[in-house]
Design goal:
The structure is a homodimer. The first copy, chain A, has about 170 residues and is mainly alpha-helical. Helices cover about 55% and strands about 5% of the residues of chain A. Chain A has a two-stranded antiparallel ribbon with strand order 1-2. The two termini of chain A are about 25 Å apart. The interface between A and B is large, with 50 and 50 residues.
């Protein structure tokens, strides 16, 4: 939670009010723009991390997670502004952290398992750690995508700016 | 400036008050921790970007830049706290942006040149764009370094979390 609570203010500082061109630029076909990433994180709040944690902690005998749709946000947010998505993310994350905190999870609960569509057995502890890493990965992605929009402007400095290199492969 | 002014609040949101273990962890020998990155950005404010811009704009005939010491911060900040470095960076960046803004640079001025110790001729325009990309690269680095501290906790999710992979080579 110490890290998860940082993501909304970090995204706000990095993105709120940025030029629309910068917010909608990506790293090529099938890659995410900063706008897409915020939509993807909203999907995570609504359909991924906490819903899966609730399945693990539930009394149901079927602990299979619902498969996650990585492109749900595309249609969902087609008429939205970045500002409204940022606000929505802030609110969803705050609600989720309030609920997570209210659980006062014990070590025993953190070792409870659910069934991931790809991996099979996973623990609640692994799910929560992955949520943290997922956030940080997408913060890094947003910064990288923004950086690449200045690729043609830096001249010879390119060689000292590895964030511009393509070995940092596009991904969502 | 639209991007440069975002770096202090972004770093504050991401790092202020984080666990000391997280702030001081890195990606292995000779790589930067988040603490080191903030120190490196302070060095940039004091010895790199604006000093070089001033050289380009000066009346001096010698436009050679002073070589930049990438490890100045190591000794300089050995007794500092992350909180005090963050505060110092906020202040230095604010002063530098105030000065940069006061110049009201024209296109002609942006095309003026200085002499980089490695590259030779570079324009003020390239210098300023590189400053922006440098900031964003280090924001991405901080998020990546933080993420890697959870590498052993995510279990099978590793394969879906490319920020944890080593093809994202450590660098400063």
């Amino acid at each position: 939670m110490e890290v998860l609570r940082r993501t909304p203010p970090t995204l706000h500082a990095l993105l709120h009010g940025v030029d629309e061109r910068l917010a909608r630029s990506n790293e090529g076909a099938e890659t995410f723009s900063p706008f897409d990433v915020v939509g993807h994180l909203i999907d995570g709040e609504e359909t991924d991390w906490m819903p899966r944690a609730r399945i693990i902690l539930s009394d149901e005998s079927d602990k299979r997670f619902t498969p996650y749709d990585r492109f749900r946000h595309r249609e969902r947010n087609s008429n939205r502004t970045l500002a409204s998505l940022l606000e929505e993310f802030v609110n969803l994350r705050a609600e989720n952290l309030k609920e997570l905190s209210s659980w006062k999870l014990t070590d025993t609960q953190l070792d409870l398992k659910g069934i991931h569509p790809t991996f099979g057995d996973v623990t609640l502890r692994q799910l929560l750690a992955s949520w943290v890493v997922h956030d940080l990965g997408h913060i890094a992605q947003i910064a990288r995508v923004m950086a690449k929009q200045y690729r043609d402007d830096v001249g010879p400095w390119t060689v000292f700016l590895p964030v511009l290199s393509d070995h940092e492969s596009p991904r969502s």
